[in-house]
Design brief:
globular, single chain
Length: about 230
């Protein structure tokens, strides 16, 4: 039987394109939330700066993240631009005591993103202590084909990093509930709060955790630095 999984969805303060400063900020969150799995927003290591340089998995600036995960036994899902075979990708990095790897590359791009990035290869699920965790990033969460693809992977939990405007909060929450019901799984949304570049002077925050029936279980507030933490069974 799988054991309970404690998840935190976090919305750290962000310094535009300053990977090292943001890595220290992420590390402080990881140490503070006491969770096995800690999820962060889209492009959380650079801010939503589409022209930011790709982040390599062996970048020394990520060492504070690895150290924090080693000390706490956590796994962090962190947003960053990365290099890919067909161009740069918007990605989710998996960080743990063993180091950093690319876990997922965003499949569905929106706005100006296609100018800077190539789409990823499709849906992904990772294993965390026997839990199947499906991954997505922002626009993915509103694409029926993506949701159906994740549901087909028989996930126990779906996690996505987001950037949304405050007036898009209702949309953010509608998507969370719909994905939970479609997948029959918990949902964790980590959504940026405060300014984050790319024209986002304000963002919605309200990172949240949802039950498989589409019921909201817990929400963070709208301020940078907030997080929501819950033990899933």
């Amino acid at each position: 039987m799988r054991r309970p999984l404690t998840i935190a969805v976090a919305q750290p303060g962000c310094a535009a394109k300053d990977v090292r400063a943001n890595a220290f900020e992420h590390a402080a969150v990881i140490r503070g939330v006491d969770a096995r799995l800690v999820a962060f927003p889209e492009l959380s290591l650079t801010g939503y700066e589409l022209d930011a340089a790709p982040v390599a998995v062996d970048d020394p600036n990520l060492e504070p993240l690895v150290a924090a995960c080693t000390e706490t036994g956590s796994i962090a899902l962190v947003g960053a631009p990365v290099a890919g075979e067909n161009g740069n990708n918007i990605a989710t990095l998996r960080v743990d005591a063993g180091g950093v790897e690319v876990a997922y590359r965003k499949s569905h791009l929106g706005g100006d993103e296609p100018r800077w990035f190539a789409p990823g290869d499709g849906t992904v699920a990772i294993d965390v202590d026997g839990w199947r965790v499906g991954l997505g990033i922002c626009k993915d969460t509103g694409v029926d084909a993506h949701v159906a693809g994740v549901a087909a992977l028989s996930v126990d939990l779906y996690v996505a990093g987001l950037v949304h405007l405050p007036e898009e909060l209702r949309l953010q929450e509608e998507r969370a509930g719909r994905i939970a019901r479609a997948c029959g799984a918990y949902v964790g949304f980590a959504s940026f709060a405060g300014p984050t570049g790319g024209g986002y002077v304000r963002t919605s925050g309200m990172s949240s955790i949802w039950a498989a029936d589409g019921t909201a279980l817990l929400r963070a507030g709208t301020e940078p630095g907030a997080a929501a933490r819950l033990a899933l069974t």
